[in-house]
Recover the amino acids of this structure.
């Protein structure tokens, strides 16, 4: 790219060379060096630009919480240990499980893939946002990757606060934001075939 090119210039060039990218205009997440800048950001030699498809939407304790991805089964006990404290008058948890049907079809199993460095960075960003909005909340988020069977937990969140209201609000904010911003994708293995699921605009 010529000197002074922007991320938008890179996207335009890629769309010209790969029509499938243009087809997803406005729905692809474009990252620059594992971050999400605006399209006017200048790019340099050696920068990494990634085109990420629509998401289905995942370090020590910091910014009010801990967030991680793992291939092994999730444990709510592990998340609760991250948020426990004598001041926790309310602890709210969320578990998202793999169900046996979707879109009117029987599901055999799922597979989750993630752009791992950016996914964990985005999950930590959610914890930081929670800490800013609800300073007394401690948050932990974990998301599975790989093959998951029916009934397996795909995502778990725990939020602890002195009062239940903040814990409920923070937990709901965390799962809703994760589904929109974290580069994790779900593939369903259904009776009609295998397909990637786009759950968010």
């Amino acid at each position: 790219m010529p000197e002074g090119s922007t991320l938008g210039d890179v996207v335009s060039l890629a769309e010209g060379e790969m029509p499938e990218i243009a087809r997803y205009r406005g729905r692809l997440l474009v990252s620059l060096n594992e971050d999400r800048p605006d399209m006017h950001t200048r790019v340099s030699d050696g920068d990494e630009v990634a085109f990420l498809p629509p998401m289905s939407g995942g370090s020590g304790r910091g910014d009010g919480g801990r967030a991680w991805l793992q291939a092994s089964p999730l444990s709510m006990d592990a998340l609760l240990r991250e948020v426990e404290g004598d001041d926790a008058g309310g602890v709210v948890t969320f578990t998202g499980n793999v169900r046996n049907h979707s879109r009117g079809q029987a599901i055999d199993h799922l597979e989750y893939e993630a752009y791992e460095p950016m996914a964990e960075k985005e999950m930590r960003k959610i914890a930081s946002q929670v800490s800013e909005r609800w300073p007394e909340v401690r948050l932990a988020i974990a998301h599975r990757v790989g093959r998951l069977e029916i009934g397996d937990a795909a995502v778990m969140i725990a939020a602890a606060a002195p009062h239940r209201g903040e814990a409920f609000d923070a937990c709901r904010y965390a799962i809703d934001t994760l589904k929109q911003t974290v580069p994790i994708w779900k593939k369903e293995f259904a009776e009609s075939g295998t397909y990637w699921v786009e759950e968010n605009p």
Remarks:
- The helical segments are 7-17, 19-23, 76-83, 116-133, 164-181.
- DSSP finds five helices and eleven strands in the chain.
- The domain at 65-197 is CATH 3.90.1170.40 (Aldehyde Oxidoreductase; domain 3).
- The two ends are 30 Å apart (CA to CA).
